[in-house]
Amino acid sequence: MVQQSEISGLLDCALKLADAAARISLSHFRTRDLAADNKAATGFDPVTIADREAERAMRQLLADLRPKDAILGEEFDVKTGTSGLTWILDPIDGTRAFMSGTPTWGTLIACCTADGPLLGVIDQPHTGERFIGTPDGAHLAHRGTTTPMTAAATTDLSQAILFSTFPEIGSPAERAAFTRVAERARLVRYGMDCYAYGLLAMGQIDLVIEAGLNAYDIAAPVAVIEAAGGIVTDWQGGPVWQGGQALAAATPELHAAALALLNRPDT
Description:
Blueprint: H1 4-28, E1 36-38, E2 46-48, H2 49-65, E3 70-73, E4 86-93, H3 95-100, E5 106-113, E6 116-124, E7 129-134, E8 137-142, E9 145-149, E10 161-164, H4 172-182, E11 187-190, H5 195-201, E12 207-214, H6 215-227, E13 231-233, E14 243-249, H7 252-262
Parallel strand pairs: 3-4, 10-11, 10-12
Antiparallel strand pairs: 1-2, 4-5, 5-6, 6-7, 7-8, 8-9, 12-14, 13-14
């Protein structure tokens, strides 16, 4: 079991990882000659030199600072560990946005036990925003200023702002379930990648619904949003930090309303 006294050291490590990744990602962001390989057998799932180099830099830093910890990252093989802690890394969440020059991508860093995330960081280097969640709470670090973050108090779905990355969400059934929620929300926006989770933690939006996620897409957002008082589960109300269908909500009331609609059979 991780003691409270250890959390500050783990957070310091996470911030060093974010710094290392940021130096690399910013050196490639908005460059005209950035090339992308396609990892998908069908469709388009891009990866760039920035993704690979940023993750490699974080892994090297962990080898120096936390050699006994395991690592699960998007771009390279799992590294096993003996400490009981696993670092879950996404060097660039939102590579499509990164390629397009839009600042909605970010680096995701979570430190987890077997029970889930202890702490998480959503880092957007271009805007200088770092969304941080620990057992002590959530805060936004932005260009030398630290501000506590608290999720919004919205309880009425008709007043909620809902975000998702892809309009199609996932399968046709998942799209239909999402639509049942979206039709009742006040406002629906798309294409924000991990930045949407940061906005939810700081109280700007109320819901994020996605499907087809991996652990490296959602572990850090879970830590940040829960530290800000929000709720993140799968579409059945269970844990989602290891991936799957994600429902993030600012309040229990919104979570319950969205969950009921996601699981309501079409009539």
